[in-house]
Amino acid sequence: MIYKRNELGFMIEPDFHDGYLTGIRTFDKTVELTMKHLVKGAFQILLLEVEELQADEFKLGNIVMNVRLTSGTRPSPEDLSILHPHPHPAVPKYVHDQHADFRERQISRIAQREVILFQMSASYGCDLSAICKKVEIQTLETH
User: Fold this and answer.
1) Is residue 129 exposed (0-12), middle (13-18) or buried (19+ Cβ within 10 Å)?
2) Which of 2, 48, 61, 112 would you call most buried, defined as having the most Cβ atoms within 10 angstroms of its Cβ?
3) Of the candidates 53, 71, 61, which has an alpha carbon nearest to the alpha carbon of residue 120?
4) For 10, which DSSP code?
């Protein structure tokens, strides 16, 4: 399925706003997200060649606020905060420096289209971020 994003990278087709994240499955370097929307149907989002993944607060009834894909533009450091939280202030300076260098390398890779930053924000439940090489979306049959 071909998907469309607006100028800020937010998904507009299919629009997952107020849909439900019903499942997360990982295998090898693939992450499979199962989505259900009461009006638009069911979808599977495949994140391929995943390098990093963080999902917080997965619950029954996760409600999606938006989905954003960033590649070809520089994300803000805050966009990577779920994947790369700041080190504790008490750790040595070199740890903070390494963290900042790594984050900057990831930002550059996203800006150069080497990888995609996938972000799913929730109005309830699971916030999910990943860095991957490819995103595929498929419509699922519902019975």
Assistant:
1) buried
2) 48
3) 53
4) B
The tens digit of pLDDT for each residue in 109-129 reads 999 999 999 999 999 999 999
pTM tops 0.90: yes
- Distance, in Å, from the CA atom of 46 to the CA atom of 137, rounded to the nearest integer, reads 6
For residues 69 and 37, what is the distance between their CA atoms, to the nearest angstrom? 19
Q: Among candidates 67, 73, 101, which has minimal Cα distance to 87?
A: 101
Residue appearing with tokens 């202030």: 89
- 3-state SS of the chain: helix, strand, coil percent to 5? 15, 45, 40
CA distance 133 to 101: 21
Instruction: Supply 44's token pair.
Output: 């599977």
| Helices (H), ranges, 67-116 | 93-111
The structural domains of the chain, with segments of one domain joined by +, span 4-140
pLDDT of residue 30: 98
Q: Residue 91, Cβ neighbours under 10 Å: how many?
A: 11
Alpha-carbon distance of 52 to 54, in angstroms, equals 7
